[in-house]
Amino acid sequence: MGALDELTRPAADGDHVGGVPARLVASPGSTAEAAALIAAARELTVVIRGAGTKVHWGPPPRALDLIIDTRRLAGIVEHAAGDLITVVRAGTPLADLSLGDQQLVLDGPAGATVGGTVAANTSGPLRLRYGTVRDLLIGITVVRPDGKVARSGGKVVKNVAGYDLGKLFTGSYGTLGLITECAFRLHPVAAARVYVRAAAPASVVAAVLSAQVVPSAIELDSATGEVAVLLEGTPAGVRDRASVVEKLIGGELSEQAPAWWGVPPWHPDGIGMKLSVPKSRVPALAESGFPVRGSAGTGVLYAAPRDITEVERLRALCVRNAGHAVVLTAPPPVRDILDMWGPVPGLALMRRIKDQFDPGRRFAPGRFVGGI
């Protein structure tokens, strides 16, 4: 029990997940400390917390003994600028990554940590050009629920040795173990960037995509009726491509993003949904009468339904348009009677993976799809 005694403290009033209070909180400062802690905590149920920006997402845990706080697992381990690679500890806030003229293009919620971004698989407007977590993550170090350290991938982009733990842990909501370090590929910071903003229907997005102007992001907000296109590159190239986009959608150039850009449309105590449809079906969602906001260029949109009836109507709308919908967050009276995940293919396989990694079902019990 040495690691538990050394690294834990009694939980305070704010140490809860979805209203379920913890008994203990631990803050390991290294992978070795985290491994010793988890090995000593084999009888305890565990939820992992970074900055807490998404700790309220998903259902509450069925039980909670220990919160593992990752904020001491912070800092850049390595930055191989020549290879466009960085290795970062999981508790590092995305906003704190200082990489010179290079960048890790993950634009998740303000204040989010690297580990939380991977665990929840969050990405923002820039996913259109640069991809999502699964596209940028090339290596990962984790501590399994039995306390053993596992590594996958490496510090080169084309590394296929071993099992791809990175893809398994991405979006796993902390149900398979603790992420302690991540290796990512980087991109150069663009020399110039500009937004083309216009009051325009969602149907203009198809024209922008087919014009081969290489947008970094195309976002829409149906509540304001605005579409915004981000272009990046050399000053001359951005200027020329912006001129093309202006002719396609009208509007004006701006160095500033719209106020709604990358901001979830729901209030902190409201219902928040993620809607995913093929790009060709985005206009159907934008013109449905439900206010939606998000990446028109990738078909990932967000909505703030007012009640369970609207949740089900939005979910049905996505299914009719060959997509799906997930409730990310909801107040307890709604969350407790709602299937937040909805139908998910491959649930049997997910259960088998959970059983292999966490046969005792101690990590984030009940937080994931199908009660995993």
Automatic annotation (TrEMBL):
<dbReference type="InterPro" id="IPR016166">
    <property type="entry name" value="FAD-bd_PCMH"/>
</dbReference>
<protein>
    <submittedName>
        <fullName>Glycolate oxidase</fullName>
    </submittedName>
</protein>
<feature type="domain" description="FAD-binding PCMH-type">
    <location>
        <begin position="17"/>
        <end position="189"/>
    </location>
</feature>
<dbReference type="Pfam" id="PF01565">
    <property type="entry name" value="FAD_binding_4"/>
</dbReference>
<dbReference type="InterPro" id="IPR016169">
    <property type="entry name" value="FAD-bd_PCMH_sub2"/>
</dbReference>
<dbReference type="InterPro" id="IPR006094">
    <property type="entry name" value="Oxid_FAD_bind_N"/>
</dbReference>
<keyword id="KW-0285">Flavoprotein</keyword>
<dbReference type="InterPro" id="IPR036318">
    <property type="entry name" value="FAD-bd_PCMH-like_sf"/>
</dbReference>
<dbReference type="InterPro" id="IPR016164">
    <property type="entry name" value="FAD-linked_Oxase-like_C"/>
</dbReference>
<keyword id="KW-0274">FAD</keyword>
